[in-house]
Specification:
Two copies of one chain form a homodimer.
Chain A: H1 5-23, H2 28-32, H3 42-55, H4 57-67, H5 90-111, H6 115-118, E1 121-124, E2 128-131, H7 132-156
Antiparallel strand pairs in A: 1-2
Helix pairs in contact in A: 1-5, 1-7, 3-4, 3-5, 4-5, 4-7
């Protein structure tokens, strides 16, 4: 196992600034492009990350630490960000993500005040027994997944434009993730 | 075709700040992890991006605009960054990348002073005829490829740690790019 709380927090703290550097002020053509029907653009991915801060990571961690294995997490709608305020500007979304992430990493430090807390068990509605450490690791890997998704979606715009160089560009040469 | 010079420049200009936000001050464990023997860590990817600025994108574009189809590009060693100053600190590499990228986007604007210039032809040693537009598009897609690579490599560290959530994490659930 590689998880260490302070390193996980390093990464969680960097995601908002990384997305701001990449997306703030970018042309609408970059922000609204997607990989086709039913796929997300960069702006929708940021909305999904905000929704995860609101309803997934910290609420589930609190639930796990409070309820233990007795009561499974309530279900989580991974598409709920597509309703609601998905049409806010990218800068507003990025600011909102930065603020809520800052609160949530502070909360994480409070909740996990010892190594033992990382081994606490809860019940996932589909997976059964899960540990606090697994939930926290997943939060980090989920950020990384969605950063990768955003850059992959944007690279897709140039699929035709790169001409023969497509042969050297891994990002355009594989099954969709 | 989706390529527009000013949008390509938006993206090229954002890559250094994006990588700084993600990597500056990060633990060595994150910076030095890779996907196994013969694969690159985040720090080596930044060295590769610097090398591309020095010897690939702008030098090839200048060559193409000067020589046309008559003389193929000189060969380019995609592994040359693994020799040389690969052991500089991440902050030094990030600073170097920012500086050379700034010079090169300025140069790009100078070199491509009209839409017609984008249609200029050169000869790639493996592909044959290529356009300036294809080279410039590839430069952008190459940035995005390597941002995706860095986050994928870092997510790999938590492959075991995420436990059953691996089922929901696209980044850990596919063939290597």
């Amino acid at each position: 196992m590689n998880f260490r709380l302070e390193q996980a927090i390093e990464m969680l703290e960097r995601t908002p600034a990384t997305l701001e550097a990449l997306l703030s002020g970018l042309s609408e053509d970059w922000l609204s492009c997607n990989e086709g029907e039913g796929t997300w653009n960069a702006s929708e991915v940021v909305a999904h990350l905000i929704e995860g801060e609101r309803t997934n990571w910290i609420p589930r961690l609190e639930w796990l630490l409070r309820e233990g294995e007795g009561k499974p997490f309530p279900p989580f709608d991974r598409y709920s960000h597509l309703n609601g305020a998905a049409d806010a500007s990218i800068d507003r979304k990025l600011r909102e993500f930065r603020e809520i992430r800052l609160q949530n990493t502070a909360k994480l430090k409070e909740l996990i005040d010892s190594e033992e807390r990382l081994e606490a068990l809860g019940t996932h509605p589909a997976f059964g027994a899960v540990k606090a450490r697994e939930l926290a690791s997943t939060w980090v890997a989920h950020d990384l997944t969605h950063i990768a998704q955003i850059v992959r979606v944007m690279a897709e715009r140039y699929r035709e434009d790169v001409g023969p160089w497509i042969a050297y560009l891994g990002i355009l040469n594989k099954e969709r993730q």
